[in-house]
């Protein structure tokens, strides 16, 4: 008689009653799904669940040969951020901070959107500046060409003619610079006003732009005059210093004077580029914000301070590009005018033809250079305001209002005032 602690009884086959025989069916899982057949004890047939009415599936459409079944598209996972919507672009630029491509593309669109006003005014300004220089060069080439053609026939009268040609050359250059000082200043103001409207997709005639700009002309000349003083004072001081040194120097000291001159040229180039970049936005600040000369230069200095090297690089690249294009346009005419002037010496007709060709070459080059440089400076000014003052939010709000109204009205010009900046 067992007290419950003895060994379990053995079966005839030698296996314990609590140990399942080998290869027996696994024990029933307590996590049997509802409706699944219940497992029966070992050696018995499993119990079948009650029969339920079933519906036979319809005919399956096989996939076409050599094709894969459609897989579900992946859904955005955790942390997925959709791309931002494209920026509004009612005019020549998208209303967001600009890249180099946006600035160059916007400048080209400025010229193409209003060619009559932009290129027409630029051609007039370039022609006024090119004519005095072309006339002086034509007289110089005519006088020098006679000496080159027959050097043995040079007389005192020929020397006087050559001197007259040099005087005409330098006189024409000075007159050209004076005219350029005036017309380019006015042109910059008018083009800046046209650009301010083109940002919103609006066009403005040259007459309308002039009516808006003429009240800012004294301030524009003030900015250009102050820039001229800043650029010329170091040159004048250096020239006076070298003259004083040359008057008291010996023959052996001209070597280090030449080295000093080369050093000054290198330093002056850096000086010129630095201040030209710092005051690049002074003219847009005068025209679009209504500031005075000194205040506009201070404003330009402040805007450039946050991104000096980028502004410098874009302006330098622009100068190189427009210089190459202007050379391609002007060199054939200038070369032809030079040949006419030198080999047709003494003839009034060849002198006139030479002057005309040189003037045409200078006009074509400057007609492209003036609006492109003014457009890049204006768009860089807008970009710096977007980056430093969140000005793009102001422009976007105004653009939505313009789209709602369906046209660009004159009140868009007032948006450039600094009081409309989001961070002012």
Topology summary:
Elements (H helix, E strand, L loop, with lengths): L99 H14 L1 H35 L6 H43 L7 H8 L3 H32 L5 H25 L3 H8 L3 H13 L2 H36 L4 H42 L1 H15 L19
Helix pairs in contact: 1-10, 2-3, 2-9, 2-10, 3-4, 3-5, 3-7, 3-10, 5-6, 5-8, 6-9, 7-8, 9-10
Instruction: Report the major sheet.
Output: none
Distance between the termini: 104 Å
The count of β-strands is 0
Number of helices: 11
Number of domains: 1
Radius of gyration: 42 Å
Question: Rough shape?
Answer: globular
**What string gives the helices and strands in order?**
HHHHHHHHHHH
Compute the average pLDDT. 77
What structural class is derived from the secondary structure elements? Answer: mainly alpha
User: Which residue ranges are poorly predicted, with pLDDT under 50 across at least 5 consecutive positions?
Assistant: 1-26, 28-37, 39-43, 52-56, 63-68, 153-162
Which bin fits the share of residues in helices?
55-70%
Binned strand content: under 5%
């Amino acid at each position: 008689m067992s007290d419950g602690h003895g060994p379990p009884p053995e079966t005839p086959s030698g296996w314990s009653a609590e140990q399942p025989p080998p290869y027996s069916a696994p024990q029933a899982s307590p996590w049997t799904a509802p409706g699944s057949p219940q497992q029966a004890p070992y050696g018995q047939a499993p119990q079948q669940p009650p029969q339920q009415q079933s519906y036979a599936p319809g005919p399956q459409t096989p996939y076409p040969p050599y094709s894969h079944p459609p897989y579900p598209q992946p859904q955005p996972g955790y942390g997925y951020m959709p791309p931002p919507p494209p920026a509004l672009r009612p005019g020549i630029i998208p209303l967001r901070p600009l890249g180099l491509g946006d600035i160059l593309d916007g400048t080209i669109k400025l010229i193409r959107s209003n060619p009559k006003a932009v290129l027409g005014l630029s051609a007039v300004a370039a022609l006024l500046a090119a004519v005095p220089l072309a006339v002086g060069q034509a007289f110089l080439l005519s006088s020098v060409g006679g000496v080159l053609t027959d050097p043995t026939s040079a007389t005192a009268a020929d020397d006087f003619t050559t001197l007259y040609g040099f005087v005409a050359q330098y006189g024409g250059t000075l007159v050209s610079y004076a005219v350029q000082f005036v017309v380019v200043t006015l042109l910059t103001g008018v083009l800046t006003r046209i650009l301010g409207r083109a940002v919103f997709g609006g066009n403005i005639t040259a007459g309308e732009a002039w009516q808006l700009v003429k009240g800012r002309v004294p301030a524009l000349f003030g900015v250009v005059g102050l820039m001229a003083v800043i650029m010329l004072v170091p040159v004048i001081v250096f020239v006076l210093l070298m003259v004083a040194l040359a008057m008291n120097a010996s023959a052996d000291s001209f070597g280090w004077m030449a080295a000093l001159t080369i050093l000054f040229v290198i330093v002056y180039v850096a000086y010129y580029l630095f201040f030209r970049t710092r005051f690049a936005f002074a003219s847009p600040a005068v025209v679009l914000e209504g500031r005075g000369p000194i205040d506009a230069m201070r404003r330009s200095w402040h805007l450039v301070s946050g991104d000096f090297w980028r502004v410098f690089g874009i302006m330098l690249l622009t100068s190189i590009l427009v210089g190459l294009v202007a050379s391609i346009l002007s060199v054939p005419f200038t070369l032809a005018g030079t040949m006419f002037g030198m080999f047709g010496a003494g003839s009034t007709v060849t002198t006139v033809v030479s002057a005309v060709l040189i003037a045409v070459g200078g006009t074509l080059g400057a007609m492209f250079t003036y609006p492109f440089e003014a457009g890049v400076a204006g768009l860089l000014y807008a970009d710096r305001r977007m980056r430093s003052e969140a000005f793009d939010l102001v422009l976007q709000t105004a653009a939505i209002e313009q789209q709602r109204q369906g046209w660009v009205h004159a009140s868009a010009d007032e948006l450039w005032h600094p009081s409309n900046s989001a961070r002012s």
